[in-house]
Design a protein that fits this description.
Order of helices and strands: HHHEEEEEEEEEEEEEH
Helix content: 10-25%
Strand content: 25-35%
Shape: elongated
CATH class of the largest domain: Mainly Beta
Radius of gyration: 20 Å
Distance between the termini: 43 Å
CATH architecture of the largest domain: Ribbon
């Protein structure tokens, strides 16, 4: 995140930005005389879902997880990306933005977060009828305590994140993380004695398709 955006977010917790001019905001964060730069970064924060800007009421508020006030939308925090191949992408802990999703499109609304999928090793997965394509978002329930064989999970291996199907092979004292893809991807094997470097960060309960995929489906329906 840009340093100015970090300063704006911090300021939004102390000041009502909706009651300040762009010049006043700029002065408070050390950017005196640059209102257009302030406007740009405020719009970027709004675009990424980190700020909610009500222009008619002149209210600027920081987004919080949960239902957005006076709407049917739910703000779901995005915690970075996860690889659908090997565990190669570092697992981020900070909120990088929010997905604003209609409550009717979510199977669960509380204590969830989203991860952006990268890669194609799960493009044959089936989560409520949806596969996981590159660029899709997966909704993760970190409070799910009873991970079972066959569940789709967000796994963390040596601080790197991956999306896989989980199997606990107790007979051979190992955990197997399987890809489900139209291409060939090797499984990941983790011996029980090495599980200290491995954890399941939650069960994947839903897939939010990227706009391009959703739009392609819509066009196909229209042409039928």
């Amino acid at each position: 995140m840009h340093k100015l955006q970090e300063k704006l977010l911090e300021l939004s917790t102390k000041q009502d930005l909706g009651k300040l001019s762009l010049r006043e905001i700029g002065k408070l964060i050390g950017q005196k005389g640059q209102p257009q730069k302030i406007k740009h970064h405020l719009l970027q924060l709004e675009k990424n879902g980190l700020l909610v800007i009500n222009r008619s009421a002149k209210i600027v508020s920081r987004t919080k997880p949960g239902t957005i006030h006076n709407t049917s939308l739910v703000a779901v925090p995005i915690f970075g990306s996860a690889n659908c191949g090997p565990a190669m992408i570092y697992a981020e802990q900070q909120v990088g933005g929010y997905l604003r999703i209609s409550g009717r499109l979510l199977s669960k609304k509380r204590d969830i977060f989203a991860i952006k999928a990268e890669g194609y090793s799960m493009n044959k997965a089936n989560i409520n009828g949806e596969s996981i394509e590159d660029g899709d978002y997966v909704v993760v329930d970190p409070t799910y305590r009873s991970i079972k064989n066959g569940d789709y999970v967000l796994a963390i291996i040596d601080n790197n994140a991956t999306i896989k199907r989980y199997f606990n092979d107790k007979e051979n004292h190992r955990i197997i993380l399987l890809a489900e893809s139209s291409a060939s991807f090797s499984p990941i094997f983790i011996h029980h004695q090495e599980a200290s470097n491995f954890l399941v960060n939650g069960k994947i309960i839903q897939v939010i398709k990227k706009p391009k995929t959703a739009w392609s489906r819509f066009k196909k329906i229209l042409s039928e």
